[in-house]
Amino acid sequence: MTKEFEQLLDRENNGSLKWDDDYIQSRFAIRGSKEYYPLFIADMDYRMDAQVFNEMMAFMEKPDFGYFRIDDRFYESIIRWHKRINRVDLKKEWLVPSLGTVASLVIASRLFGTGKNFLMMTPIYGHLKACSDWGNLLTLPLVLKNGRYDVDRARFEALAGSGAFEILIFCNPHNPSGRMWTFDELSWIVDVCKENNILILSDEIHSDLNLTQNKFISMIEFHEEYDRIFVSTSANKTFNLSGLNASYVICANEAMREQYEAFLASYHLGTNRYGLMMHQLSYDFGYERRLRLIENIKDNINLVKAVLLDTEVEVMEPEFGYLVWVKLPGIADVDAYVLDLAKKTRVLVETGSRFIDHYEGYLRINVATSKEMLRKAMTLFVQHYNSYQEGES
């Protein structure tokens, strides 16, 4: 066991939503405890990689906070990273520095989808619902096959063919389950969307943390077959940079890309200089850290599975990321359960209802913390689940 992922950041009293008492009070109606076990918000409790941190400190020794130009090194770092990690060849002109990953998708939805119908296959990351605020939302439940989610192909194809939706909001890999979509599955989705002129907006922020030996397939890889594909991603999950408000989009469609860039420029929506530099440095110096992090995440997922082994709780083991989607058989009101869990044990998990629809009985656990804290939290979780009586709190 490496100490790298056991000596956690001190995140209390610094505004971290995951540890902030006021925010926890608003979410879970508990206050004033030093024994929180926060396993909900999707960021990590780990210290930054030492080399990346040192490189950033060297950059900040010249405290220049004025207007700036994004130089080629930023784009080159992204191109090298995706080539090395996912064996994908990107072009500089496809890349647009942007705000956060979700913010970028919301902007794209406004530009390309105002007054149109959006489809999301649920459960899906809840903040993506904001994309459909510019139009109308249609949800299609994913179906369970052999303990993992799959697309209901017949219904998807029927909806697409009937003109029921014009924009697909897609999580690749899937959030909350961490499921990897195969080449054949993605190719089929692209074919259906092409046939019906449906725009694909793909959230790929979790794609670097691949827990398998299989190749991740980005939607951008289908650009030659169909170029109405808009990918939003960043280094934020892999290197814990979400507070820096930076990301980038990948789009091979020149007209769409120019429209997006023009919108950012018209509202002076420039990207944070230090957020972009942290992306560049993380991609340039963070490869080995990523490998160590992936092994640590695997260990922590196995820890969760081991603690839950003799319970009724069903674990949908992720193929990407540090989030574990679990089902609690017999729990009708998962929101009430999560609040009672927090009240009785101070274990804080993400309730299924934050994933829009078709989440009954599910919740999500963030394992990106120390093994000591995770083991304590999961032990308390099991004790609570075994004694919980529906309707009592």
Provide structural commentary:
The chain is α/β, with parallel strands linked by helices and 393 residues long. It contains twelve helices and 14 strands. The chain has a seven-stranded mixed β-sheet, sandwiched between helices. Helix 2 crosses helix 9 and helix 3 crosses helix 9. The mean pLDDT is 94.
Task: Map the helices and strands.
Layout: H1 21-28, E1 37-39, H2 50-60, H3 72-86, E2 95-98, H4 101-113, E3 117-122, E4 136-141, E5 143-145, E6 148-150, H5 153-161, E7 167-171, H6 183-195, E8 199-203, E9 229-233, H7 236-239, E10 247-250, H8 254-266, H9 273-285, H10 287-308, E11 314-316, E12 323-327, H11 334-345, E13 347-351, E14 362-366, H12 371-387
Parallel strand pairs: 1-13, 3-4, 3-7, 7-8, 8-9
Antiparallel strand pairs: 2-10, 5-6, 9-10, 11-12, 12-14, 13-14
For the largest beta-sheet, the strand count, sense and barrel status come to:
7 strands, mixed
User: Number of helical runs?
Assistant: 12
Structural class estimated from helices and strands: alpha/beta
Rg from alpha-carbon coordinates: 21 Å
Give the tags.
393 residues, alpha/beta, 7-stranded mixed sheet, 5-stranded mixed sheet, 12 helices, globular
Structure, briefly:
The chain is α/β, with parallel strands linked by helices and 393 residues long. It has twelve helices and 14 strands.
